Amino acid sequence: MTTATETLSTVEIEKPPELEVISMTKRFGSLVALDNVSLHLKPGTFHALLGENGAGKSTLVKCVMGFYTPTSGEVLIERQARAIASPRDAHKYGIGMVYQHFTSVPAMTVAENLVLSRFDNTNLINWKAEYEQLNAFMQTAPFQVPLDVPIAQLAAGQKQKLEILKQLYLKSKILILDEPTSVLTPGEADEVLGLLREQVTAGKLSVLMISHKFREVMAFVDEVTILRKGNLQVTVWCAT
Description:
- With 240 residues, the chain is α/β, with parallel strands linked by helices.
- Helices cover 30% and strands 25% of the residues.
- The chain has a single domain, classed as Rossmann fold.
- The strands form 2 sheets. The protein has a 6-stranded mixed β-sheet with strand order 6-7-8-3-9-10, with helices on both faces.
């Protein structure tokens, strides 16, 4: 098994890596939150993770992201077992997560939050250079959010777009989305998921989305995995 500090390559990942969860189990004392679950996120696909509350969805993705250490099982990236002990480790393999609740700092601007999201240890920031890079990034991004606006002034849809933009800014190629449309109107949800769908179809991203909204799953998703009480029920391919 490789160590958590090893990366896939010395060059930037150009396409989404293949992600597999193999026979993963997670126990919290006598509680079995996840029981021998496997999942395959194929490169360039949009995959939904479904199930009732308590089914094990969040436990599974938190094991992938390194928040939890699985009791048993492995995470494979490009068919090699990887030790992921933290979100920083997950980032090294091109994996990023957009959480159910906003994580941006309300008093700071969009630009400041994007820079703050980085995993580097830079103490001195050259804002002229940063703005040049941020403007160049925004020109290629699927969403547009004004860089100089404080987060507190953004609408909910713009805040959610920023959460996704932060992961694209970090060059994440696998996005794990935890109920990303829970605070959005149906129109905002269709816009956000539709633009992500375009990125997936173009082969730029893979998406693993936790959702309770069947309409969105049927409209945007390629494949569905259903969990129930910590157990894998079925994985099916959808016609989008």
